[in-house]
Amino acid sequence: MKAITKAFPGVKALESVDFDLHAGEVHVLLGENGAGKSTLMKILSGAYQRDAGEILLQGQPVEIDTPASAQHLGISTIYQEFNLIPQMSAAENIFLGREPSKWGGIIDRERLHGEAALLLAELGASLDPSTAVRSLSVAEQQMVEVAKALSVEARILIMDEPTSALSGGEIRLLFETIRGLQRKGVGIVYISHRLEELAEIGSRVTVLRDGLVVATHRVGEVALDELIRQMANRELKDHFPRQREAPGDELLRVEDLGARGRFHGVSFSLCRGEILGLAGLVGSGRTALARVLFGIDRFDSGSLWVHGRPVSLNSPRQAIAAGLGFLTEDRKAEGLVLNLSLRENVSLPSLDRLSSWGVVNRKAEQELARGFVESLRIKTPSMEQPVVYLSGGNQQKVVLSKWLAGRADVFIFDEPTRGIDIGSKVEIYQLMNRLTAEGAGILMISSELPEILGMSDRILVMHEGRIAARFTHLEADQEKLLQAALGRGVSRAGAGAQGRPAE
401 with 376: CB under 8 angstroms? Predict the structure, then answer.
């Protein structure tokens, strides 16, 4: 891609960008949200048309004016947001529009399922290709997306955050698949905010910032802190700006909590002014625990205390009334109403006090939203902008604004920075600092161990539905957390029987 330029109304998305990809390499594309990564790849995949510049494939100029023309040229894309039809089976999604057929145009179901099974087996995914996508886990849906892309025998494969929903074991299988594709000569453009994946899978890395190419390096020839500086003009030491005073009064206490088939015997406390990190592998019970704490699902043993009072929390409404806020793992499906405006999303938990006789006070609603747009520096053209058009980091700020407006002081953050860039991550961390400084307590669930280590005051590790280990932030390191997450060690360090802060 040579001198690629693209502008939208009022925004220069790309300015004379050069980017190249060799057969059999993984070229990692880095940059904050808004840097131009997705725009560049949408031009390569035919979703957008360039304003200037040219694209050459094996040295020959090509025109890529539709996604179909990109596929015809052997260019396939796996998007971060799944592009699947929930009601259809995995096999039907993989071969949608290209179904094998018998005489008379009838779909050959046996061949359809057989070929889908082979593709999924190549990825190490043990799922039935006849299963409806809506019945699959997020990780299994990601595997269907990968199989769909591989089914067109792509020469160029664009992967946009392919590991964001995968566990450690699934990531390793995906990396093995990528290495197999490299051996076949497939060139891969790999977009990720997980910088630790660079060394394991990348060949070269190109950094974009504000629509310009900052630099291209061979992986291993540039330090991580230098890449962060190039992306965001920010040093590595500023990546986790943890600031905390001594914890205050107890906000939340969990005693021997259990939910049949999901977790059991869970005990801990959360105090004002602290971040309690919760680590563990996918399926360890972390999100199941969060859903119970917020009243989405029921617990069947143990007890729960909020602000020193025993509570049941049989619904999210009761949890909100008790002062809890929940930033879900999937903000788009569960945290926001995408087609509603920023104003309407911010006010959702506060409609009771913003309305009279069932009529919402629009002026009060606008003032409420405007206050958070200014204080959290949410980038939006207006309060009426549908949140579906905001970046991931700004969407996360809208979810946070919603709970701040609802006057929560116990926050459950489930993967708070998944799928957002480093600059937005740091802003979210700074907001967490602000919340704890104002007396809130945060239970932070994260699959990113550097994030857990960088921002937590105390750390719990779950394994197979139990708390396997407890650490203070001074005692913990990545190896200890991984050992505990894999069930290979138990530590009671830094916590009493109920997981209270060490004296």
Answer: yes
